[in-house]
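Write out the 3D structure for:
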Amino acid sequence: MERGWKRRLWPGAALVAAATGALIYALIRAGDHGWLNTVSLVLCAAAVAAYAAFVAWQRRTSAPLMDLRLLGRQPVVAGLFVITVATALMVGAFFLGSFYLQNSPRSQDSGSGGRSTGAPAGAPERPGTAEQSAGPPGRCPVAWG
């Protein structure tokens, strides 16, 4: 390679890093503030613009970070499609599975034989039963579970 090729890699690396950072931050922010929030939309637009600038830079430079023609090859497109579908199915299963497990009848029973009252461990179940559950004088009640 010719001299100075490392200096020509930095603009492409900076563009793709900035675009990816803006896109990730936009996705995180959209979950909290909404997809149509002005800042989220501006970040998405900035990410698209930075990716477009990266593609333009890669086509123009003599020492590109990657050959963009690889992204158009059928095996690469098929692999990206499979990875995208598998990721969507996995995230969907985790997301919907958590709702299912929260609402299932067995989620109320922890499997320890006890029942969940929402009270801290060792707290009396009803008011006025603290004396009854404390046991003999001088001993502290202990919760096992």
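The first helix runs from residue 5 to 33.
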